[in-house]
């Protein structure tokens, strides 16, 4: 199996590109104002077709220097105003005045602005547009579509990016990544994870995604402990449209969807809809996915207000590939699946309802209020061969003189949950030096966990659907935040962000006598953040920030422990400092971070007082890294977007506990400065894009992920090898008279057939005096393809 041992050579070109010569000569300066003559600070000014841009200062003034003579287009935009493009023929220094008109109707973006980062936030973030998503959206889940953004590692149980997929950002798994949809919490309240499989093809109803790395700005829902992902659904479309997408490819993967919208009817009403179906047989044996979803949105828009009702639902059936494959089979049977029962499936449906509203109270004040309800219900079915009746609270079966204590059983584990609440914000904009937000949210989760026996080879007097356990849980979450951005001068901006979050959780857990009883826990967190941004000139700026985040233990941490062994909440102090530079041909960002953890929860192998391998708090650990992003136009038809993260991710002192089968005890081993599991020291992504003709784009998409350890011991025998994959993408679009656009996409994944694994787990133990580790991995597909066509009318 070929594995890379060095960082790809394209990373060494970063510094060289920063020294590229400047051909600029002319300066454009000016003022942006509204129709009433008031200046507009914070407006974005971009030279179209280049990386060069700036923002207006507190007085609404801007300046762009070092611009080549000749024709150029200047695009000016600001939230709440209609964007304007002005064409100039530059022969000398030019001064202009641009007037922006208020939009005829309220805009959707205002409801997410309170929880999104902007150029004044002094944190690391990436915005992904609908156009970016469309280039890759051939049926794979959202994590796969974000794969080439900085510091991200993705994985897929089935190996194809369809079905159960996962995401890590800066080494932090999905339980530490806050996800919101239109500012509304999406993370599962108990596990704190995000299951994108429950909303298939949701990317087709998304307008933008913002990824904030680190603690980020205050948001609603689960604690952002490694990153936050803020997703905004369809924004207002003024004109009617219809669209169809069809794609197909390797491993029986296929997707079909239809989208339609009325546009703005009678200057007030709008209706958008989508219907999708996705299927994949999976790379791993039997790891199929059958996915269905719909999205329906109706809105009423006025000049100062709007209200939208979003209803969307996802239904999934996936064959289980959760076990991965043993290390011993990687070279001989990479698609092995230990499950063989024909209905070893996961079945779940999730229905989401969002009522979103926004109202302009005055020129300076806007109120946003949303209500939501999410209904989820489903089960996974599994065959348990030769299982004991006693595990299910059932008596042994006597047949004649024989007493039968075990039999083959098929069971279903159910989850039936309701999640509802509200989020709100009050936004202030002085259109001068101060902007501010006060907001927050309240939500409650009620989850019913229960198990049923639906078949037994020897059933005795057992009824079908015998319920062998019940476990109801309730969790409430409330947060309140206040944010302010203040422009001290044309060069210096500061922000402050304060949040209080309280969590109440009631659950079935073990008491001190190891009895299963209803318990509860209440936690209160204070999360302050602040930072400064200094604008050096129209080409460069620097920023720095510090933020505090807290995160409560998850469901298993509570239910599989007693009050005496229950872990503590985690604390993170995140320090970020960055530098940005941009010119016509180049945009570059360097962001350094130090994430200092206290009481981070990790697996150690230790059995707690209830006999569970629960996570434990490690007092001190950290992540320190440097994120580099570069976009450059190498030639008129050749662009390169590349990013790289170099990091160290360490636990100061770590104790591993190994089961010793020679004496039946556990043996402790001490380590210092060990690597945090699943945290590669190098992550890099590259997109080299060539446009040889109008409407045609060829892309080489590359991804490098350094080695990752399966546990926290830095043991070379328990790791995921580094991998380097390359994809080739061809997009051809045309605009015939009968349609807005027809786009053909052909995506060749992993063209060099890299045999790699992106996830895994390990169990280490002692037998006959030797330490043995059983490693299991999740292999990803080798060379494969997807092809699609999109028609928009």
The outline comes out as globular
Integer-rounded radius of gyration: 27 Å
CATH superfamily of the largest domain: TonB-dependent receptor, beta-barrel domain
Largest β-sheet summary: 22 strands, antiparallel, barrel
Beta-strand percent range? over 45%
Quickly count the domains. 2
CATH class of the largest domain: Mainly Beta
User: What is the total tally of β strands?
Assistant: 44
Decide which structural class fits the backbone.
mainly beta
How much helicity do the residues have? under 10%
Tally of separate helices: 5
CATH architecture heading of the largest domain: Beta Barrel
Instruction: State the low-pLDDT regions, or none.
Output: 1-6, 15-24
Mean pLDDT equals 91
Distance between the termini: 47 Å
Defining traits:
Immunoglobulin-like, five-stranded mixed beta sheet, 3% helix, 793 residues, single chain, disordered N terminus, Maltoporin, Chain A, 44 strands, 5 helices, mainly beta, globular, 22-stranded antiparallel barrel
Structure characterization notes:
This protein is mainly β and 793 residues long. The protein contains 5 helices and 44 strands. The chain folds into 2 domains: 1-103, Carboxypeptidase-like, regulatory domain (Immunoglobulin-like); 241-322 and 336-345 and 354-437 and 444-462 and 486-792, Beta Barrel (Maltoporin, Chain A). Helix content is 3%, strand content 60%. The chain has a 22-stranded antiparallel beta barrel. The chain has a 5-stranded mixed β-sheet with strand order 8-13-14-11-12. Strands 3-2-5-6 form a 4-stranded antiparallel β-sheet, with no helix packed on it.
């Amino acid at each position: 199996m070929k594995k890379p041992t060095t960082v790809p050579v394209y990373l060494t070109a970063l510094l060289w590109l920063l020294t590229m010569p400047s051909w600029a000569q002319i300066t454009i300066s000016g003022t942006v104002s509204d129709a009433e003559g008031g200046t507009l600070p914070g407006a974005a000014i971009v030279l179209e077709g280049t990386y060069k841009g700036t923002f207006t200062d507190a007085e609404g003034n801007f300046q762009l220097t070092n611009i080549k003579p000749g024709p150029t287009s200047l695009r000016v935009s600001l939230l709440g105003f209609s964007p304007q493009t002005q064409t100039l023929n530059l022969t000398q220094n030019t001064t202009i005045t641009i007037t922006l008109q208020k939009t005829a109707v309220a805009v959707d973006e205002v409801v997410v602005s309170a929880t999104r980062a902007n150029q004044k936030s002094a944190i690391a973030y990436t915005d992904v547009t609908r156009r970016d998503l469309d280039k890759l959206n051939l049926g794979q889940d959202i994590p796969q579509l974000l794969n080439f953004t900085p510091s991200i590692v993705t994985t897929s149980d089935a190996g194809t990016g369809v079905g159960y997929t996962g995401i890590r950002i800066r080494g932090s798994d999905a339980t530490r990544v806050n996800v919101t949809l239109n500012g509304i919490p999406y993370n599962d309240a108990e596990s704190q994870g995000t299951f994108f499989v429950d909303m298939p093809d949701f990317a087709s109803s998304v307008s933008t995604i913002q990824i904030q790395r680190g603690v980020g700005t205050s948001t609603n829902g689960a604690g952002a402990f490694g990153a936050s992902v803020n997703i905004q659904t369809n924004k207002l479309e003024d004109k009617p449209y219809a669209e169809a997408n069809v794609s197909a490819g390797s491993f029986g993967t296929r997707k079909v969807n239809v989208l339609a919208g009325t546009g703005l009817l009678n200057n007030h009403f709008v209706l958008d809809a989508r219907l999708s179906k996705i299927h994949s047989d999976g790379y791993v044996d039997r790891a199929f996915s059958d996915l269905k979803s719909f999205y329906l949105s109706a809105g009423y828009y006025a000049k100062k207000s709007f209200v939208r009702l979003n209803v969307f639902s996802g239904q999934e059936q996936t064959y289980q590939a959760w076990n991965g494959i043993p290390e011993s089979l990687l070279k001989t049977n990479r698609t092995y699946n230990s499950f063989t029962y024909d209905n070893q499936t996961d079945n779940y449906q999730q229905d989401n309802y969002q009522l979103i509203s926004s109202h302009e109270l005055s020129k300076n004040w806007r109120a946003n209020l949303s209500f939501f309800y999410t209904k989820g219900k489903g089960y996974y079915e599994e065959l348990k061969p030769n299982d004991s009746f006693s595990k299910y609270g059932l008596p042994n079966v006597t047949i004649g003189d024989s007493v039968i204590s075990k039999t083959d059983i098929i069971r279903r584990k159910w989850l039936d949950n309701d999640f509802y609440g509200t989020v709100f914000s009050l936004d202030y904009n002085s259109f001068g030096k101060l902007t501010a937000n006060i907001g927050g949210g309240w939500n409650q989760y009620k989850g019913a966990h229960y198990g049923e026996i639906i078949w037994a080879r020897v059933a005795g007097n057992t009824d079908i659907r015998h319920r062998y356990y019940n476990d109801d849980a309730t969790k409430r979450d409330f947060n309140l935040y206040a944010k302010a951005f203040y422009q001290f001068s044309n060069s210096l901006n500061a922000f402050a962000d304060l949040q209080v979050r309280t969590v109440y959780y009631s659950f079935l857990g073990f008491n001190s006598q190891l009895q299963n009883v209803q318990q509860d826990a209440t936690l209160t967190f204070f999360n302050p953040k602040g930072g400064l941004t200094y604008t050096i000139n129209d080409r460069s700026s620097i920023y720095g920030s510090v933020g505090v985040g807290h995160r409560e233990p998850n469901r298993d941490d509570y239910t599989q422990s007693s009050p005496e062994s229950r872990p503590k909440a985690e604390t993170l102090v995140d320090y970020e400092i960055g530098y940005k530079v941009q010119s016509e041909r180049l945009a570059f960002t360097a962001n350094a971070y130090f994430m200092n953890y206290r009481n981070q929860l990790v697996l150690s192998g230790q059995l707690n007082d209830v006999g569970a391998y629960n996570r434990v708090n490690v007092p001190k650990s950290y992540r320190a890294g440097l994120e580099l992003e570069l976009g450059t136009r190498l030639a008129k038809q050749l662009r390169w977007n590349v990013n790289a993260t170099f990091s160290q991710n360490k636990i100061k002192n770590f104790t591993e506990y190994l089961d010793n089968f020679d004496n039946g005890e556990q043996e402790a081993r001490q380590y210092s400065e060990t690597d945090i599991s699943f945290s590669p020291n190098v992550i890099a992504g590259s997109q080299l894009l060539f446009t040889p003709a109008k409407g045609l784009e060829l892309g080489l998409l590359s991804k490098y992920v350094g080695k990752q350890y399966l546990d926290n011991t830095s043991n070379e025998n328990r790791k995921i090898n580094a991998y380097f994959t390359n994809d080739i993408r061809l997009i051809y679009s045309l605009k015939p008279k009968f349609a807005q656009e027809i786009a053909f996409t052909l995506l060749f994944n992993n063209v060099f057939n890299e045999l790699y694994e992106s996830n895994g787990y390990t169990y280490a133990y002692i037998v006959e005096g030797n330490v043995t580790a059983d490693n299991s991995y999740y292999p990803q597909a080798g060379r494969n393809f997807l092809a699609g066509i999109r028609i928009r009318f």
